[in-house]
Amino acid sequence: MGYKLGQYIPGSSLVHRLDPRVKIAAVMLVSITVLRADAFIVVAVTILLAGITFIARLSLAHLLRAVRPLVIFFALIFLVHLFFTPGAPSPLPLATYEGLYRGVLLTWRFVFLILSAAILTMTTLPSELISGLERCLRPLRPLGIPSHDVAVMVSIVLRFVPTLLQELDQIKEAQMARGADFKAGNLLARMKRVSSLVIPLIRNSILRAEEVAMGMEGRGYHRGPRTYMRELRMTPSDYIILALLVILTGLGVYRW
Amino acid sequence: MIKVENLVHRYDGDDVPVLRGINLEIKEGEYVAIIGPIGCGKTTLIKHLNALLIPTEGNVWVDGMNTRDTSLAGEIRRRVGMVFQNPDNQIVGMTVEEDVAFGPENLRLPPGEIRRRVTEALEAVGMGSYAQRHPHTLSGGEKRLVTLADILAMNPRYIALDEPTSSLDPAGREMVLTLLRGLNKQGIAMIHVTHNMDEITGADRIIVMEDGRIVLSGTPGEVFSGV
Q1: What is the dihedral of CA A14, A16, A18, A20, to 10 degrees?
Q2: What whole-number distance in Å separates Cα of residue B90 and Cα of residue B100?
Q3: Most Cβ neighbours (<10 Å): which of A32, A41, A109, B3?
C-alpha cells in the first residue's frame, strides 16, 4: 500500500506534539483569516505556513503530494480569473494584469486551505485527530450531536477502508480468473463491468456491518458516554500557541 | 455459573426453531467443547450466553443474572466474552492497542486503568510488540490473538469462542489452542465451539449437538467411547 493523501508522517516535533484540539482550531482560524485575505495577509500566512512546515520537519515533496490531486482544480480557478477579470490589457490576449493578480491570490488561498488541512493530518495520528474532534464536538451535545457516537463512526470508517480495498481486489481477481477484463472496451462497457465489482462489495459490506455490530455489542458497546484510553491534556505551550493564533486571526480579520 | 434452561430459539420469520430445548450448566473454570454439524445451532447457543440473543422460550442465567433483563446486559457481557469466527469483523480499532481498548472504554474505566489492561492483555497473548500495528497488516493468526486480547481486557470469567481456529494454518492453530488452555488454567471458563474433533480432546466436557438439541454430553472418554 503506497502513500496516501495527507497520511500521517511519524515525528516528534512541536507540531506533532501539540494538542489535536489546538491544531484543529488552528486550521479553522487560519481558514477564516484567508477567506477575504489581501496580498499582505496571504504573504503573512504563507510565511507562517512555511515556518510550521519547517518546525514539523515536513519536506516540500510532502506538501506537493498533498496538492497534486487537485492541480486541475487550481489551474481552472487561476485561468478563469486570469481571463475574465476586467482591467488593463496585458501582452496575452484577453488576460489582464488585474486578472493575474486576482488569479494568483485566489488560487493560493485554495492551495493554502488544502495545505493547512494536509499538515494537520500529516502531523496528527488519526486516533488523536478523532479524540480531538470528539472533544471539539462535546459542547454541541445539548444540540443533539452525539460526539461519542460520531467519534466511533469515524474511526470505524477509517479502520475498514483498507479492509474493503483488499476485498475489492479479491473480488476483481476472482472475476478476472473467470475471464473478466476490466481494461477492454469503451467507457460505457467498462463502467458496466465496474458494477459487477461494486454490487458484491456492497452486499459483503452489509453482511459485514451486521457482524461488526454484533461484535461491538458483545464487547459492551452502547450509545452514549464512554471513557478513552488516550487522554488529551492542554499544556502551557498549547495555550500559548492557541492564544497567539487567536490574536493573529483577530488582527487578520480586523484588516477586512 | 452459566445455566441454560429449556432454551428454545426461533429467528424472526422462521417457522422451525434453531434451538429446541437446551439444558446446560457451565461451571466456573470449566473447559467445555461444543461440537456438531454446520447448522445445528452451536453459534446461536453461544450468542445466548452473553445476551446477544434473548430466548424465545426458556431462560439463560449468567452468575444468577437472567439475560432477559436488559439492564443487566452490560454486566453479563463483561463476564462472558465472545470471540467470533471472523476476526476481521471483530477488530474495530485503527491500531491493535486501540482495538483492545475498545471494550474497557465501553466499561467507562479511567484512562490509566484502560492503559494497564490493554498492556496486560496484549502481553498475555504475546502481542505486546504489536500495539501500534494496523489491523490489516496482521496475519490471520495474529488477528485471532488480538480478538482474544480484546476479550481479556474486559476481565471475563467465561469466554465463548466460535470456531476460533478456522482459517488458521496448523502453527497458528496450535498457538491459539495452547493459549486457550493456558487461560483456562488461570481460571477462565472456556466454551469452545468447533467441528474439529482433535481440538477438544483436552476439554473437561464435550457437548455434542444435532438439530438444535444436545444429543450427547460427557467427558472426552465417555463421548468418544459412545461414538
Answers
A1: 170
A2: 11
A3: A41
Query: Do you know the residue count of chain A?
Result: 256
For β-strands B205-210 and B213-218, DSSP reports them as antiparallel
B-chain CB neighbours of A163 within 8 Å are 88, 135-136
Q: Quick count: other Cβ atoms within 10 Å of Cβ B58?
A: 16
Query: How do strand B189-194 and strand B158-162 relate by DSSP bridges?
Result: parallel
How wide is the angle at C-alpha B205 spanned by C-alphas B203 and B211, nearest 5°?
Answer: 115
d(CA A62, CA A54): 12
> Do residues B27 and B200 make contact, with C-beta atoms less than 8 angstroms apart?
no
ipTM: 0.88
What are A145-194's pLDDT values in tens digits? 888 888 888 889 888 888 888 899 999 899 888 887 777 778 888 888 88
| B54-90: pLDDT as tens digits | 999 999 999 999 999 999 998 999 999 999 989 999 9
**pTM of the predicted structure, to 2 decimals:** 0.82
Vertex B41 angle, CA B37 and B45, to 5°: 130
Contact of B83 with B147, CB cutoff 8 Å = yes
**d(C-alpha A142, C-alpha B119), whole Å:** 35
- Any alpha helices (H) in A6-146, and if so which ranges? 14-17, 20-35, 39-55, 60-67, 71-84, 97-123, 126-137
CA–centroid distance for B14 within its chain: 26
Domains defined along chain B, listed by start: 2-226 (3.40.50.300)
B152 touching A (Cβ < 8 Å): no
Residue A9, C-alpha cell as written in the block: 508522517
Among candidates B181, B108, B94, B78, which has minimal Cα distance to B138?
B94
> Which chain A residues are Cβ-neighbours of B191 within 8 angstroms?
none
Classify the C-alpha dihedral A244-A245-A250-A251 as positive or negative. Answer: positive
A166 close to B (CB below 8 A): yes
Are the C-beta atoms of residues B87 and B146 closer than 8 Å to each other? yes
Chain A window 178-237: which residues touch B at a Cβ cutoff of 8 Å?
Answer: 208, 211-212, 214-222, 225-231
CA distances from B74 to A87, B28, B60, B78 (A): 70, 19, 15, 6
What is the grid cell recorded at B163? 470456531
Euclidean distance between CA atoms B19 and B42, whole angstroms: 9
